[in-house]
Structures are given as structure tokens and as C-alpha cells.
Amino acid sequence: MLRRLLCLVGLVVGISLIVVAPPAGATLSPECEGSATLFNDGKSFEINAKATGTQTIPRKADVVYRGSIDLPSGKEYTHQGSAKLKVLFTEIKLSTWEWQGDTSAVATDGTTSYDLDLPAGLLGGVKGTVTGGHTQGGITCKGNVDIQIDGSAVNAASVGAGALAAAGAAGLGMAARGKR
Amino acid sequence: MRRRRPVLGIFSGIVFGACTSLSLALFGVVALDSIVLSIVPVLGLVLGVVLGFRPLGSADAPRATATVPPEMAAEAVSGDAPAAVTTESSGAAPTFSDAYPPPPPPPPAS
Question: What is the chain A residue with the closest CA to B16?
Fold first, then answer.
């Protein structure tokens, strides 16, 4: 029995080592450029869609964004795109854009803001992947950025989840000992 | 013999797996799109089912044979066990001779 348990634990550790550590960073199709500067509480966070490594973002921020696509200017193109946050096997739409008419713009910039609308610090340290795409004039840009929310990972939510996990482990221990 | 606790095992396994998965995400150990977050709860459930239905130390092997010292077993086979061992046990703990009485003496030589 104990040997089987050890095999199971070894299997879990092995699988985790294989799937936990994919290369972190950002990718974007070579025809496109994209970046943003996030401002929050006097601090600024630079996000580049072609940078390597995990990029830190605040829980809420005012955003100045810039983007361009490698197309000849002066012509009209249809265009559409979206940005999503990947969560397990699904994706949460963060933003979509689509214009019914054509546009001659091959670059854009602007400002926006976001607020994850959760108690401060609750999601600090959480890692995720934002994926996005933009199609215009026969060119499709696809990219993703690995992000981590700014703040301490030790907060009420994480400690509470850890405590519940410990309680579950204690219950497993009692089940493993059985009743006399 | 230990009795099973399947309900406790299954419930604890689910809680352990789900909360471990949540902890991994909230502590920033794995990303929100990591497959680990879906594997760990399933493994917790499997662990709970296994431990709930097969508690540790619940082997079905008989205990009497496992506690017999080798020298007593050898004496019982050879038939020359000492008198102190073959007499009836008056103590609380049963001895090997209670379960296996010594063989009868050999017939007298003619």
C-alpha cells in the first residue's frame, strides 16, 4: 500500500515537473508590434508583446497603448481582433474590437483603463497568460504575454486556501489510519 | 483489523485536491492556464478513494503466524519442545503451543 502511495506521489511530482515549467515570456507575430505603459499609484509598468519573461501588471491601472501592423499605408482594410485571459481550458474575453467599415490606419495608440474589481491584494502574485490576435488586410497577428499580478502572494485568499488544503490533508490522514 | 472510512476519504480528497490547486494558483506557483490545476484535484480524489477504501495497515494476512518466533517454530516441528512451552498457558497472552499442540511421543522401541 505504502509503495503504491509513493508511486502515486512520484507520478504527481513527475507530471508537475514536466508541465509546470514552460518557457515564460511573450510571443508575437513578426509583422506586428505592440506595447503598453500601465500607470498605478505613481508607478509605471512597461509591457511589450515581444519581451521575454513574465511581466508584472497592477490590479488596476490607466493604460497608454501602442500597436502597429506591417501593411502599406493608404489602402483600406477590414480589421478585427480580441484579447483574452486563459484560465484552465477556457478563455475570458478582456476586449474585442471590430469595425464594420474599412480603415486605412496601420498603427494605433490610445488610452484606456482597467480594474480587476477585487479587494486589494487578493490576487497578488497570481500568474496568467493573456493571449490576443488582430487580423487586418490578410495578415493575422497572434501573440501572448505571461503576466503576474503585482502584490504579495501571501494574502487572505492564499493563506485560507492553504489552511483548507491542510485540513483536507488531515482528513486524508484520518482516513488512511481507518477506524479501530 | 482497521475499518474503512470511505466517505471521509473521498470528501477529504476532494477538499485537499481542490484547495491545493487553488493554493498553487494563488501563491503564483503555477499559471491560471496550467494543466496542473486540473490534475491535482483529480489526484486528490483518487488518493481519497484509495485511502478511504484501503486504510494503511489493513492487510488481510493472519496475524498468528506472523508473530511466531523462528526458534519456536523449529521446536514444534522437531517435536522436542521444552516442557515449559508445551504446558497450558496460564498467562493472558496465548503462546504458539496453544494453537499447535506438540506431537505425541514416538512409540516405545520393541
Answer: A168
